[in-house]
Design brief:
The protein is of the alpha+beta class. It folds into 2 domains: 86 residues, no CATH class; 77 residues. The strands form 2 sheets. It has a 4-stranded antiparallel sheet with strand order 1-7-3-4, with no helix packed on it. The protein has a 3-stranded antiparallel sheet with strand order 2-6-5, with no helix packed on it. Helix 1 crosses helix 2, helix 1 packs across helix 3 and helix 3 packs antiparallel against helix 4. The longest helix has 25 residues. The protein is elongated, with a radius of gyration of 24 Å.
Length: 219
């Protein structure tokens, strides 16, 4: 099970050997939010759902609950029919936002069937910004915690820039810890970003679409 914000805060304080005095709940919450942003920028949720085709309609508002928080639309396909549901047709489309609402506009209207809309969503953490579910795979909990440690240390380092420093070794020690957790965080993000998105259906290239166009071989 993916960790809640409360558990993440406890883990960060344990790793940084703190009881909440130096790394407070507010500091770690801000750090976790920033780490989650980085995670969602590189490795968001790949999702998909069906939308009913409206005969002759090109423009569709993606306003169902499934699309809440949509980051970007990956592709749109016309679902196959009968015994060939897996034989989908890749459709040309334009995805855009209007008044904060996601839309798609097909180049060519369809007559019937279902559109398969594939898109990306952000992961959430239970307890962060009123979210009630942690959706990050449990395997990547440690990655998020590394990121929260990194940003917590960064926040503390910034806070000490203009303070009277009675222990001159503290800034250097903070920088060493920063470097370690940053490296761990980046390594985890790199692994998460390697997951493959949904693939487009392959169409047979025409002469006009391929590199062997009408000018191929001519001097």
């Amino acid at each position: 099970m993916a960790k809640t914000l409360t558990q993440i805060i406890a883990n960060v304080q344990a790793l940084l050997l703190d009881d909440g005095t130096r790394f407070t709940t507010a500091t770690i919450t801000a750090a976790a939010r920033t780490a989650l942003r980085d995670f969602n920028m590189l490795a968001p949720i790949f999702a998909g759902t069906l939308v009913d085709v409206v005969d002759g309609q090109k423009e569709y508002a993606l306003n169902d609950a499934d699309f809440t928080g949509l980051i970007d639309t990956i592709n749109v396909l016309l679902q196959g029919t009968d015994a060939h549901l897996e034989d989908n047709t890749d459709l040309n489309f334009h995805g855009y936002f209007e008044d904060g609402q996601p839309f798609i506009r097909l180049d060519e209207a369809q007559t019937s069937g279902f559109l398969i809309v594939r898109f990306t969503l952000p992961y959430t953490i239970n307890g962060l910004d009123s979210e009630t579910e942690s959706t990050i795979p449990a395997y990547f909990d440690d990655t998020l915690i590394d990121g929260a440690c990194y940003y917590s240390l960064l926040i503390r380092s910034v806070g000490r820039i203009e303070t009277i420093n009675l222990n001159q070794g503290v800034p250097d020690e903070l920088q060493q810890a920063l470097a370690y957790f940053r490296q761990a965080f980046v390594a985890g993000l790199t692994m998460a970003a390697r997951r493959s998105p949904p693939l487009f259906d392959k169409d047979t290239l025409t002469v006009e679409q391929s590199w062997q166009d009408v000018w191929y071989g001519r001097s």
